[in-house]
Amino acid sequence: MPLKLSSAQLVADANSKIRTLTIEQARQLLGDESVQFVDIRDIRERLRSGTIPGAFHAPRGMLEFWIDPGSPYFKPVFGEKKLFHFFCQSAWRSALATETVQRMGLEQVAHIEGGFSAWEASGGETEAVGQ
């Protein structure tokens, strides 16, 4: 049975509705107290290649529950008055995640163009992730 929408179409639609930071814009925000980078990649990806320094890990599968203050899984970091910048490996999952949390009401959100792979390729600072 053919799909009604491809994953590429879903990502393109999400990108038309959200704010995207260039790698340079994101790198300039590193260390800014008003910004929280959020790594939505799987733990295996993080262990393999590290992460952006100071990034909060929110696995994609739990993101909606961790953001919702009415959920028993709510994480207080998402109640802070910060700008949340999501990233994954290639900026596909983060586009979908950013659109979803924006629809949920988290307004100060964006994602990083090209994801962590583009961050690394640009020479962006990284840190190792312990087990």
Automatic annotation (TrEMBL):
Residues 31-128 form the Rhodanese domain. It comes from the Bacteria. This is Rhodanese-like domain-containing protein. InterPro entries: Rhodanese-like_dom, Rhodanese-like_dom_sf. One of its GO terms (molecular function) is thiosulfate-cyanide sulfurtransferase activity.
